[in-house]
Design a protein that fits this description.
The structure is a homodimer of 394-residue chains.
Chain A (H helix, E strand, L loop, with lengths): L11 E3 L8 H7 L9 H18 L5 E5 L3 H12 L5 E6 L2 H12 L3 E6 L8 H10 L3 E7 L1 E2 L4 E2 L2 H10 L3 E5 L18 E3 L13 E5 L1 H8 L12 H8 L13 H17 L1 H21 L15 E5 L6 H12 L1 E5 L8 E5 L7 H17 L8 H12 L1
Parallel strand pairs in A: 1-12, 3-4, 3-5, 5-8, 8-9
Antiparallel strand pairs in A: 2-10, 6-7, 9-10, 11-13, 12-13
Chain lengths: 394, 394
Amino acid sequence: MTVRSFHPPQRTLMGPGPSDVNPRILEAMSRLTIGHLDPAFVGMMDEVKGLLKYAFQTENELTMPVSAPGSAGMESCFVNLVEPGDKVIICQNGVFGGRMKENVERCGGTAVMVEDSWGDAVDPQKLEDALKANPDAKVVAFVHAETSTGAQSDAETLVEIAHQYDCLTIVDAVTSLAGTPLKVDEWKIDAIYSGTQKCLSCTPGLSPVSFSERALDKIRNRQTTVQSWFLDLNLVMGYWGGGGKRAYHHTAPVNALYGLHESLVILQDEGLENAWARHHKHHLALRAGLESMGLGFVVDEAHRLPQLNAITIPEGVDDAAVRTALLQDYSLEIGAGLGVMAGKVWRIGLMGHACNTRNVLFCLAALEDVLGRVGAKYERGVAVNAAEKVLAAA
Amino acid sequence: MTVRSFHPPQRTLMGPGPSDVNPRILEAMSRLTIGHLDPAFVGMMDEVKGLLKYAFQTENELTMPVSAPGSAGMESCFVNLVEPGDKVIICQNGVFGGRMKENVERCGGTAVMVEDSWGDAVDPQKLEDALKANPDAKVVAFVHAETSTGAQSDAETLVEIAHQYDCLTIVDAVTSLAGTPLKVDEWKIDAIYSGTQKCLSCTPGLSPVSFSERALDKIRNRQTTVQSWFLDLNLVMGYWGGGGKRAYHHTAPVNALYGLHESLVILQDEGLENAWARHHKHHLALRAGLESMGLGFVVDEAHRLPQLNAITIPEGVDDAAVRTALLQDYSLEIGAGLGVMAGKVWRIGLMGHACNTRNVLFCLAALEDVLGRVGAKYERGVAVNAAEKVLAAA
């Protein structure tokens, strides 16, 4: 059977990522490929590093994109910082804390789980109790912005507590980077990873990471070899390290990096604070619309992520039927629940380029229509009007 | 300092990869991003699997691209097939055999090295001797097409010998796939990995892999957990497995996969045998031109890869100066030597879309000019004429 070229449908991406990609980024990805050791490419790599430092608000020299998706970025933090026998405290309040546990155990470490309910922020007191009970712990890991629930935790406080007990910190910022305040140096985060397909609005496939000097000390003084050759930062540093000759490690994903570069230029031009404010403003508008329809948030107001709105599916409404209707009739993607929240919540993303007035109003109008078909009674336009009022007042 | 959008120079890529990318592929990569769980995307994933089966000449159900560069494809073969304590025989005849050793040791295995000179093919007799001396060996690994030297080994014979001693086989086909005959099922290869940036002429960043039923048996019956969460095929299979519901594992690099899909459609339309023949024909033309200039190949004729031509740098000629002149004056990239061959050889790639008449003639003309400047005496046009004669006769 002959396969033909693939032409994707035009979607509006308001799920948990990938989010709508800025056309400037798509155009950048289609620029001519050059060699990964070409002087012009090496110069671009240095710019990517500089722009990522800005996005992460850090001066960490080892700030770069891992050449693979966010889950490989997560793994690069764990395989480099955890040695066999190390005890790691993991604060779990959603799916991705569970993945951290998998990582620790595959590194030969012991994971001590500190559990909070899904939808809650991580409780600093529970972390402190766990550190008191486990004085031999070496690393604390948690998710800053839980993509599975839309809850934001107080990273600064959690890192401060971890440091009081002389632990390094690994922070998942996949969904927070560029969407909500994140300050790696001010908050003294030791190792952090993110993804390109969330609030950077780039295509999926790369994972920006950053490591503090303290983390690098640990890596340089490991007793054992890092179990992954591909993710061994001792080797990756020789390639992304900069400052002189680059040692060949792997072949960088050249065009994907063009895209990341362009997305970071866009972020630089908008300004980080403006990007955060844009996410906040549109979240408030979306919230007003959703609440006018009687839809409730999973996360309490104080800990809600503006860029990921998890809402409870109304009693009796068929999760999959609604998402299918949104996709088929409106070409609009919203996210399903993950793990224990499957079938119970929808996740509406307002990430990066997708976080704009058009999408907020379009999503509310589409939801009004589709939920109306399954029996819910909404006066047409109320949700859209509620959102517009918030936008006008902003 | 404000960073601006990056606009790469237009190069001709005749190094060891990335090779010139077909503009159809670049255009495909710039198509609109859709969700990685979108039904339209899932359908495209199935097509990619089918097209990769054709490229690898296999019916292996587990045939898919790893969401990371070739070195991660290599690692996915080793972490899944090698358990702590396993003995692995590695036939090394260049850089990449050494990287295999690194992989085995990081998996807790023991590597038994079978060495051949760089530039030689792997000697089947040496492999057989090693298997006799190591009856407890479980895996044999070798490179089909050594990117560092341009030597091709007899994969079919090596696999046959390995199977006689009840070993699984891991084969590096990064440079061979789509450039030179490769028949995974006929040759009974158990695990194989490749890259997208060589003879598929796609952008770098993905690693097509394929695993036989025999390899999957081993993976399903492992005593220990795979040390990498990201590369654990037990999990990846749930995502790429097809045939029904897909389990979320990681977010696929959507646009990079558009590019791979397009490159495989191009390969399907040309036909694998025609692609192999095109590589062979242009290699003969390039060879005629190079030999008319007195430039000699590193590899003997019987084992030369058409797509990677390693030639000895003439006595007294400055390696870096020549490559810099080719890049600056002709925007032409050829490859430097790697490892022990650094400074001693150039590697001229004729890979995929870059393997065409224009590039052969252009490269020879540029070399004539640049080598002429450093004192070599060539009658202008002789090399180009020699190549043209071969092309006319083909």
